[in-house]
Amino acid sequence: MTRTAIIGGGIAGLTAAWELARSGHQVDLYEAGSRLGGAIAPVALSGVRVDAGAEAFATRTPAVVEFLRELGLEDQVISPNPLGAWLQLPDQASPMPATGVLGVPANPRAEDVIAILGAEHAARAAADFDSPMRWSAAQNPALGEVVADRMGPAVVERLVAPITSGVHSADPYELAISSAHPELYRTMLAEGSLARAVASLRRAAPAGSAVQSLHGGMNTLISALESQLRQLGANIHLNTEVQDLGTLEADAVIVATEAPQVRRLISGGSQPAGLSASRSPGEDSGVALVTLLLHAPEMDVWPRGTGMLVAPTVRHIRAKAMTHISAKWEWVAQALEHQLGPSHHLLRLSFGRVTDTAGSLGFRSSDSDLLGAAITDLPALTSIAVSHDQLVDHTVVRWQAGLPGGSPQQRSDAQHIRELLRARHSAEGPRIAVTGAWFSGTGLAQIIPDARRTAQQILAP
Length: 461
Description:
By secondary structure, this protein is an alpha/beta fold. The protein has helices spanning 11-21, 63-71, 111-117, 119-126, 143-151, 153-168, 177-180, 182-191, 194-204, 219-231, 259-267, 325-328, 330-340, 367-382, 408-427, 437-440, 444-459, and strands spanning 3-7, 26-30, 42-45, 48-51, 57-58, 77-78, 86-88, 93-95, 100-101, 104-105, 211-214, 235-237, 252-255, 287-295, 307-310, 321-324, 344-351, 391-399, 431-434.
């Protein structure tokens, strides 16, 4: 039996631990905090328990659903209300176009795209179909660069930026296309068109919603993983921070923490050779999520569908996104009605971007400032005059680990670290591997399969 140490009890570390434990490895999982799950966690408002962090996973590949099936959670998989989300732009609020990937339209001539871009900018976007391809497989460009080149800057500003800002907390010109969507760039090169690439990816994706979740919230995944790990004999060490890999009694180590800890652990405190000197956004920034429980009969009509993504150019709204949780997930609406009666609504507003400057409302803001901004933003976000008097309960949750980055330079650094570790293994010492959002990219659809592949590398002879 091989003994493997996993450093980090977030979803990446838990997934890798489960993959190894069920294959017969003795697993020791070390988590510096008092609980498992990282950015997947529960929070309760007036007796109703919902997700405090990540609430869904992308279904563009079957990777997460297959994982849930192997865990025995397939029957809990649910899809959101098909109403979809809206975009808030400086001059209008509109439903998000129906056929797109990261805001990039499959059909720039569609009416819902023209309604947001205008006829002139939509025509510029449609030129992508016939424009020569100047990008190559050897490049690692930012998403914004590619979209602006193929379809024009208006598509970046009005369709892409609200999504990358709300989902990745990042500027599209600072977000590597390989981090945002690994297949989009390769498919564009194969198709010779960005729009045709989007259409191809949508056709290839599993039928149904673009995202799914679990009944009871994604936090139920953490409970299931912990339970199965303990049944498989894994040793879980909470409140245990590993300072030096040399202190571990293990044949192999997987480091599944944030970038600063990864760099420190694998290099003994020094900067690994060949890496950029740029900081990781997670070192001194993060996101703040304000969840509001309201009694608001006027919101029973779901005025903005399942939520709103706010363009960074919008000045009159300080939140970057709003999710109408009880409109998006039917089980939440049912739980609220059962616990509190009709016309109660849960909404979550998100504050904080990678591009934030000193003084921006976000991770380091006080609870009172965040709550005040959320209440102030609500009428603009919902089109309804919701007041503070209708507030029943609220929570503020901060995630410093919520901004893993994703710039072309960061992606290059992540690849370089993995290459260094592969070379080190071939020369000396125990096998060391790394996984987590900083290496895989943001979202469970990238984190989970990457963690499983990393575990398989440990299992390989």
